[in-house]
Amino acid sequence: MMQASTKNGQDFFGKLIRSPKGLISSGILLTLILLALATNLGLVGFDPTAQTPMDRLLAPNGTYWMGTDQFGRDFFMEDRAGEYGWVDN
What we know:
The chain has 89 residues and is an all-alpha fold. It has one domain. The chain has helices at 2-18, 20-40, 75-88. Helix 1 (2-18) crosses helix 2 (20-40) and helix 2 (20-40) crosses helix 3. The longest helix has 21 residues, at 20-40. It starts with a helix and ends with a helix.
């Protein structure tokens, strides 16, 4: 019985890796999880709660990939912090 379960798992992951859609989806999911973990460790970008009034309401650019809000907070980092909340639970 244990072998059948292992075989089914191998079949699922084998099909997932052989499928272009499955491979792309897995890559995106893995990237989001790694970004969330790196954000929590402080390895990526700015503090998601830090306010910089001089940088308020900026359009996306090289520094702020998704722009900033009315308080100058980086949308990209706020999104990563939200992902970590999902990964952590």
